[in-house]
Amino acid sequence: MTVDVADFHREAVDTPSHEGVDAMRDLLVETLDGAGVAATVDDLGNVVAARGPPTDEADWHFVLNTHVDTVPPHVPYQRDGDLVRGRGACDAKGPLAAMVGAFLDADPGAGRVTLAVTPDEETTQTGAAHLADRLTADGYVVGEPTGLDVCTAARGQFEGTVTISGESGHAASPDSGANAIVAAESVLTGMATYDAERGPGEHEALGEPLLTPTMIEGGEATNQIPAECRLTFDRRSVPPETSAAFPAALEAHLRPLLPDGVSLSVDLIRPDTPFPEAFATDPDADLVAAIRRAGGGDVRPFGAATEASHFAADAPTVVFGPGVLADEDGPVAHAEREYVDLAQVRRARDVLVALLETGPR
C-alpha cells in the first residue's frame, strides 16, 4: 500500500475544490481504494478510513485530520523543480498528500490509525464537529501549513454583531430621538476596554485575545436620526473563553456605557454552526514528544484558527504539516502566490510514518 506523494499532490491541486468538493473527495476515495483501503463518506461529507486493530483492541489510536476544501479563486497547478504553486498547494493539499502517504506507507503494528478528512474547514466546520462527536483517540494530528513545527495551541475565532437600538427623529431636531450612530462611539470605546476589564487575560502560549470591529452600518436617510446601528466584530479568543459565553459577557460590559434611550444586543453570526474554539495542548504531552522524536520541529502556537479545537477536548492535539501561512514576502496560504516545497511534503510524510510506527512512546 503506497502512493506517490508528488503525483497525488499534483492531482489534488489540479482539482478545484473552492466551490464544491465532490471531485476532490472522489480523488481521495479512489486513491485509498486503489491502495486497498476502503473509505467511507458520512452524512456530513467526511472521508474516513482506518488501519490496524479495532479501537478497543489497539495499543494506541492516532487520528490524522485535514480538509479538502479551499478558498476561492482556483489557482492552477504550476511546478518548478520541487516548488509547487496553486490553490491548496499548502492549505491544505500539501498536508493532505503527506497524511495520505503516511497513512498508506506506515506499519502501525498493534496500533490503529484513522484518516479523517473534512469537506468544510474553510467555512462552517460542521464536518469536524461531527467527527469529534464520533471519534475517540489517544492523539490527533491536524494537517495545516506549520513549516513542520509542532503547534500545540491556537486562538479561537468567531464573529458577531452589536446591534444598537435608539429612536428615529428629524435631523433638524437632534434631541427628538436617540441617535444609534452617536451611541456607537461609546460602544467602540467599550469594545476597546473589554479585555482589560473583563477578558480572560493573557494566555501563556497564545498571548492576549483580540476583539476587532470590522464593519459598521446604520441609518436610513440623510435627514433622519438613525434608530439602529450595527457593528460587526471578529473575536480571536484564548482559553478558557468560549464563543457561547462571550456575547452575554460583552453585552454586560457595554450596556452601562450607553446614553439614555439606547439599548443593544450582542449576537453571534451563524450561531447554529460550530466555531473553532481556542485550544491548548500540554507541550509535555506524549504525542508532542513522539512527533518531535519522529522529526517534528519547534513547539509553538499556530497562527490561525483550525479544526484542531474540535478534537482537543478528547485527547492531545497538535497542528503539523508542510508549507507556511506566510513568509518574509507576505501571505502564502489563501494568497495568489500560494506555494509549497515538495521536499517538505515528503519530509512531513516521513515524520508521520515514524510517528505511526512508534506510537505515543
Structure description:
With 361 residues, this protein is α+β, with helices and mostly antiparallel strands. Helices cover 29% and strands 25% of the residues. The chain has 9 helices and 20 strands. The strands form 6 sheets. It has a 6-stranded mixed β-sheet, sandwiched between helices. α1 (5-14) runs antiparallel to α3 (93-105). The chain is elongated and about 80 Å long.
How do the helices and strands follow one another from N- to C-terminus? HHEEEEEHEHEEEEHEEEHEEHEHEEEEH
List low-pLDDT spans: none
Helix/strand/pairing category: alpha+beta
Beta-strand content estimate: 25-35%
Largest sheet: 6 strands, mixed
Strand tally: 20
Level of helix content?
25-40%
Q: How are the strands of the biggest sheet laid out side by side?
A: 1-2-6-3-7-17
Radius of gyration: 23 Å
- Total count of helical runs of at least 4 residues: 9
Shape: elongated
CA(first)-CA(last) distance: 25 Å
Instruction: Provide the residue-averaged pLDDT.
Output: 96
